Amino acid sequence: MKDGDHKDGKAKDAEIHPTPMLDQLEDGPWPSFVTGLKRLRDAKGEQYAPMMNDLMGQLNHSYENRKGYWKGGVVSVFGYGGGIIPRYSEVAEKFPESKEFHTLRVMPPPGFHYTTEILRKLCDVWEEHGSGLIALHGQSGDIMLQGCTTENTQAAFDAINELGFDLGGAGPALRTAMSCVGAARCEHSCYDEGKAHRQIINAFLDEMHRPSLPYKFKFKFSGCGNDCVNAIHRADFAVIGTWRDDIKIDQEKVKEHVATAGRKYTIDTVVNMCPTRAISLNDDDTMEIDNASCVRCMHCINVMTKALSPGDDKGVSVMIGGKRSLKVGDMMGIMIKPFIKLETQEDFDDLEEFAETCIEFFADNALEHERVGETIDRIGLPAFLEAVGVEADPNMVNHPRTSSYVRTDDFDDEAAKWFERKARDAGMTVAGE
Amino acid sequence: MSNEKTTPRAADEVGVPDHHQYMHPVLEKNHGNWAYHDRPRAGVLRHVSKSGDEIFTVRAGTQRQMDVFTIRKLCDIGDEFADGHIRFTTRSNIEYMMSDEAKVQPLIDKLGEEGFPVGGTGASVTMISHTQGWLHCDIPGTDASGVVKGLMDMLHEEFIQEKMPNRVRITTSCCQINCGGQGDIAINVQYTKPPKINHDLVANVCERPAVVARCPVAAIRPAMVDGKPTLEVDEKKCVCCGACYPPCPPMQINGDDSTKIAIWVGGKHSNARSKPTFHKLAVANLPNNAPHWPEVNAVVKRIVKAYKKDAKHWERMGEWIERIGWNRFFEMTDLAFTKHHLDTWTGARKTMNQSAHIHF
């Protein structure tokens, strides 16, 4: 990696900051970001080379002193309030060329698909206006164009905007979403992740570009329970693909699997690892699944990709309120909508409508700097459900409450509603309708 | 100067770009119509469509923070082998897709020549998801790219082969906000000292009530120092979370004496088998030793080795520990169990063993 195709020649040696600590990160088999930084630093005549020299100087300074030296500020582009992460150096007197080193968060296409043509165009823009350093991708899913001066920020944005890209979220706002590769290349996919991703984010773009929410709000889209984009932990609104009918079994392929992998191995890794003991292997090496017990965890399908696959009646579950530590501790999303069918345009519109209800609830009810999961904890799940128009469902809990401190005066009314709902679901007409 | 220069261009609010325009034609053609996949070798996936089409994917590791020359190099490789289409995984691996199996080995060879390791699929240790660190974050206690470079050098062999019991997801985070996320192994900065306050600056820089409200343990209160309004911290209450620092930079949480590293284990995103889990503390107070973080590296190596040796096929790290018990986990990894492993936060009781189940 050290002899990349960068432009020949280095800035005068005297001008180059020594980077003894960083230099040690160029050895070893893994590609080195330091080698990349050096290529930018040594790109003779490029506008960013001096900036990258000082950036490396500052980074090495951090390595020596074990401290970060960036502070935030306010930088944005015309018409937007968010999307730029401002960074000003606290050691600018030593490293003046990188005193401003802002990041443009740019929304990627769903599933992170690119042509080399469009990536090259992004590189060209970033070489002209920025540092030449790009992270693919940040932890929220953004293309991170890292290292822009305040002066160049508008021009850099204009250029990427003309390529068909837009800024992502930052601050108290709707954030950039992520989706897995999904239907594009995965047989487990239970819905069109990219379509849901684009429709929902694009419907609420104003909340991204002009931050006005109490705090961040993230959507993530995973095609199945394997949750490859980590939606349950990290999204305020996690959309996870699932199905309602039976797992599809190709019994001939089951037999082939048993014949190839072995009966003991199949029992150990498929039957015994089913979390709800829903699977058994018959004497003739066919498979039996008790679908009423199945929790759609994906394990057996992961192991036997040829023999087993999700059912046909597909849709999504929505889980709300996931986030990491700051500041009350970790929380995972709670199952709020066990199933939303997601096939027709009307289905997608229903999902969008529900998302809008949740964002409006968040905007109106969360305290400043409170994630929606914290709001739910503060007011209680029943109050949240009432606000977003969702009925309580046993799929929302691991088990019903254990504390007896609750007013149950209207228990009978609530029970009547449950039975009415069940009757309606069964196609019956309810009294009074 | 023309008027054009002084009139800003109005943004075209295009939002999320349409991915179909960039997608490999075989993916586009078979969108939503895939039948199954297998893995001919580590780093290579073969997806077969219900239409009978096949697509081979070769996955390779990248350094995530890339210079334009590296990206163009990856594009050159994409033009030569993959019809000019590429994609990235959520863990910053690059994927090349090809309908022609004959191109797979030459592409692997090419990636090898250019220094991009092929692997990261199935039961491997794949690329570490990580944060910005000293390179770009405003509150980092350590670096990210550097830590990851060192760890991936050490774990390289486990990236290029699939010899772990199940997939291993590692994350690193430069502060306790933990942007790196959950993982089978999560390597996070753990602050060990309350913030150091520059009382001269607080009144000018910080909205004091907002800072007080941020503290999860009500350890911050308004104060006067040298006649100036400022904030003070009840150091006995402080849990060193760093939440006060972003809205109030004069409350410096980072310091070369206070940024230690903690390693957490058993986090899992997937719903496969067991429900998703958070990671749990394995060891704290490891030194933040740039540029190689040898102490961190050594512990990660021990944990990976113990898991590899002892876990059953398809068991994720957390499931393995659940089975063998924490007793044996600490024994096998030669790590200490201390009072600091006992949760003291909201819901702590739910983390205790409220049964007579014990491991010896």
Give a description of the structure:
The complex is a heterodimer of chains A (433) and B (360). By secondary structure, chain A is of the alpha+beta class. Chain A has helices at 20-23, 33-41, 49-65, 116-129, 150-162, 193-203, 205-209, 231-234, 251-261, 263-271, 299-303, 345-365, 372-379, 381-388, 411-425; strands spanning 70-71, 84-85, 88-89, 102-106, 113-115, 133-136, 143-148, 178-179, 219-222, 237-243, 248-249, 279-281, 287-289, 308-309, 314-320, 334-341. Chain A is globular. Chain A starts with 19 loop residues before the first helix and ends in an 8-residue tail after the last helix. Chain B is of the alpha+beta class and 360 residues long. Chains A and B meet through helix 2, helix 3, strand 1, strand 5 and helix 4 of A and strand 1, strand 4, helix 3, strand 5 and helix 5 of B. Chain B: This is Dissimilatory-type sulfite reductase subunit beta. Chain B: Its EC number is 1.8.99.5. Chain B: Residues 229-258 form the 4Fe-4S ferredoxin-type domain.
Q: Report low-confidence residues of chain B grouped into runs of 5 or more.
A: none
Major β-sheet strand ordering of chain B: 1-2-3-6-5
CATH architecture of the largest domain in chain B: 2-Layer Sandwich
Residue share in β-strands of chain A: 5-15%
The assigned structural class of chain B equals alpha+beta
CA-to-CA gap between the ends of chain A?
72 Å
> Strand percentage of chain B, roughly?
15-25%
Q: What is the fourth-level CATH superfamily of the largest domain in chain B?
A: Sulfite Reductase Hemoprotein, domain 1
CATH topology of the largest domain in chain B: Sulfite Reductase Hemoprotein, domain 1
Which word captures the global form of chain A?
Answer: globular
Instruction: Give the overall form of chain B.
Output: globular
Largest chain interface and its two residue counts? Answer: A-B, 132 and 121 residues
Count of alpha/pi helices of chain A:
15
Q: Quickly count the helices of chain B.
A: 10
Q: In total, how many beta strands of chain A? A: 16
The largest pleated sheet of chain A is described as:
5 strands, mixed
Q: Oligomeric form of this entry?
A: heterodimer
Structural class of chain A, please? alpha+beta
